[in-house]
Structures are given as C-alpha cells and as structure tokens.
C-alpha cells in the first residue's frame, strides 16, 4: 500500500482538527485507508501526518484536488505543506 507523508504548520491545532475530522468521509471516499497525526513535544502546531492509501493514483488525485486546498485554508494551514508519496520497502516488528 502506498503512503503519504505530510509536514505542515497550522495556526491552531484544535481548529485544524475540527476541519480534518469534518473531511473524514471525503478522505475515505477518495481512497484513504488510515492516518496518523504526530506533533513534536513543545509545538503542537507543527504537524507530521502519515496516511495509508488504497492506490498511489487515488492519493495523487486527492492531494491535487481543489477540495483539499479549500479545506486546508479553512483549517488554518499557514505554509505550503511538504508532501511525499511513499512506497513501503520493508516492515517489521520489535
């Protein structure tokens, strides 16, 4: 399964999370399978997001969509996100 890694800053995490949650159906219908949200200690507005997608093609289409760009504006994303499309090379357990 392909993954997408995103890093971006938001104005206010709580406000961003409301918009993120409100768009869950759109993300799932676009092919998202799961997500993780990470924040560094001491700065809750710097986000690293990891998504699993059903296909790379669906992920690329979603991240190019006007709907996503609009949602990011409403959510208070304050700078251009860094987006990486990833293919899993290995997986393991401890």
Alpha plus pi helix count: 4
CATH architect. name:
2-Layer Sandwich
CATH level 1 name: Alpha Beta
Overall geometry comes to globular
Helix content: 25-40%
Strand order of the largest sheet: 2-3-1-4
**Sheet having the most strands:** 4 strands, antiparallel
Instruction: Average the pLDDT over all residues and give the rounded result.
Output: 95
Beta-strand percentage range: 25-35%
For this structure, the CATH topology is Alpha-Beta Plaits
Count of all domains: 1
Terminal CA distance: 21 Å
Question: How does the helix and strand content classify structurally?
Answer: alpha+beta
The string of secondary-structure elements, in order, is: EHHEEHHE
The stretches of 5 or more residues where confidence is low (pLDDT under 50) are none
Describe the 3D structure.
This protein has 94 residues and is an alpha+beta fold. It has one domain (2-87): Alpha-Beta Plaits, CATH 3.30.70.100. The chain contains 4 helices and 4 strands; from the N terminus they run E-H-H-E-E-H-H-E. Strands 2-3-1-4 form a 4-stranded antiparallel beta sheet. The protein is globular, with a radius of gyration of 13 Å. The mean pLDDT is 95.
Quickly describe the structure.
The protein is of the alpha+beta class and 94 residues long.
Furnish the topology, listing elements before pairings.
Elements: E1 2-9, H1 13-22, H2 24-29, E2 32-38, E3 46-53, H3 56-63, H4 66-75, E4 82-87
Antiparallel strand pairs: 1-3, 1-4, 2-3
Helix pairs in contact: 1-4
Features:
single chain, 94 residues, alpha+beta, Alpha-Beta Plaits, four-stranded antiparallel sheet, 4 helices, 36% helix
